[in-house]
Amino acid sequence: MLFRISQTSSSIIRPLILKNSLNRSKFSTTSYTKSSLNVAPAPQGVPHYLTHADLSAKEIYNLLASAIQHKHNVKYLNKSSGAPLAGKTLAVMFSKRSTRTRVATESSVTYLGGHPMFLGSQDIQLGVNESLLDTSKVVSSMVDGIMARVGSHSDIETLAKYSTVPVINALSDKYHPTQILADLMTLHETYGPQPSSPSSYVAHQTHPSKTLPGLRVAWIGDGNNILHSMMVTFPKLGIGLNVATPKGYGPNEEIIRHAQSEAKSTQTHLMFSSDPREAIKDADVIVTDTWISMGQEEEKAQRIKDFAGFQITSQLAKEGGAKSDWKFLHCLPRKQEEVSDEVFYSPRSLVFQEAENRKWTILAVIDALMVKKSFD
């Protein structure tokens, strides 16, 4: 059943602090940081990267343009960064496993001449032996930036609230902004002018604001952090979004209202449904993600049952009426039930290009926050 949302959203203030977050992780420690504590937050003016709901379309495009230029400079021109982060340290605090984000982050900091200090769950337990408030104040006093992969989004907000250095959201239960930057960069490279040979690169010659508006993306899957990040980003950039989630697995209602408000202001298509075929109609791009996120393993059998009919296949795309040249995205890791091998390993699939672009977009975010000190 198709439904459209017509409510208007409340204003969102930077940094975004939402009252009703998603289910908290078992390591959550908001009890340590209640407003009754007489602890002042860090001084205002420190830039953070928590969600694209905080950024303007121009600021998002600036990050994309920077990422595209970095890729050209490093991969095709073998250009040195000049080591602007020499003597600087980025604390990489991950409470969850990571492959692409960790490799992208550590290699990006190293390219910029800095030191990535990885602190995994065995090195530092966010909110277990020490409150997030205390961790934020202590760690930020010793490093020049923090990149954190957490459970609840309120955890990353707490880190940012008390940190004296920039905080980057490497993933929370509510948002995964760096992934969406990589998706957008991949779409720009795909729908913009094409190079004459594999050894050349031309994406930096065209601004992404010329290639991305007007595209239509179909999300077929769970109402998770990837979808939430698309919802607060795509309408803002003029990218149409069709969403299909099984009944009971829809996205956060507050984020729906925010997305609707953005879509209204940019006159961009936004549709929600529980029918994958309905969402695939006229799609340029079909996107899915894992149906069982970290921490949801006990729900696997029920989720696979509830997501029956949501596997991305060529037949589903044909029945739904996707564009003839439709493309496929998946943030990885991928499982067979989410997308068929026929699609995943086909020329339509952009997943490995998308994965590589995690590096260039994370490099752009680190460069903006720790070198330029601004998204402008």
TrEMBL record:
<dbReference type="Pfam" id="PF02729">
    <property type="entry name" value="OTCace_N"/>
</dbReference>
<keyword id="KW-0808">Transferase</keyword>
<dbReference type="GO" id="GO:0016597">
    <property type="term" value="F:amino acid binding"/>
</dbReference>
<comment type="pathway">
    <text>Amino-acid biosynthesis; L-arginine biosynthesis; L-arginine from L-ornithine and carbamoyl phosphate: step 1/3.</text>
</comment>
<dbReference type="InterPro" id="IPR006130">
    <property type="entry name" value="Asp/Orn_carbamoylTrfase"/>
</dbReference>
<keyword id="KW-0055">Arginine biosynthesis</keyword>
<comment type="similarity">
    <text>Belongs to the aspartate/ornithine carbamoyltransferase superfamily. OTCase family.</text>
</comment>
<dbReference type="InterPro" id="IPR006131">
    <property type="entry name" value="Asp_carbamoyltransf_Asp/Orn-bd"/>
</dbReference>
<keyword id="KW-0028">Amino-acid biosynthesis</keyword>
<dbReference type="InterPro" id="IPR006132">
    <property type="entry name" value="Asp/Orn_carbamoyltranf_P-bd"/>
</dbReference>
<dbReference type="InterPro" id="IPR002292">
    <property type="entry name" value="Orn/put_carbamltrans"/>
</dbReference>
<dbReference type="GO" id="GO:0019240">
    <property type="term" value="P:citrulline biosynthetic process"/>
</dbReference>
<protein>
    <recommendedName>
        <fullName>ornithine carbamoyltransferase</fullName>
        <ecNumber>2.1.3.3</ecNumber>
    </recommendedName>
</protein>
<dbReference type="GO" id="GO:0005739">
    <property type="term" value="C:mitochondrion"/>
</dbReference>
<dbReference type="InterPro" id="IPR036901">
    <property type="entry name" value="Asp/Orn_carbamoylTrfase_sf"/>
</dbReference>
<dbReference type="GO" id="GO:0042450">
    <property type="term" value="P:L-arginine biosynthetic process via ornithine"/>
</dbReference>
<feature type="domain" description="Aspartate/ornithine carbamoyltransferase Asp/Orn-binding">
    <location>
        <begin position="214"/>
        <end position="368"/>
    </location>
</feature>
<dbReference type="GO" id="GO:0004585">
    <property type="term" value="F:ornithine carbamoyltransferase activity"/>
</dbReference>
<dbReference type="Pfam" id="PF00185">
    <property type="entry name" value="OTCace"/>
</dbReference>
<feature type="domain" description="Aspartate/ornithine carbamoyltransferase carbamoyl-P binding">
    <location>
        <begin position="48"/>
        <end position="189"/>
    </location>
</feature>
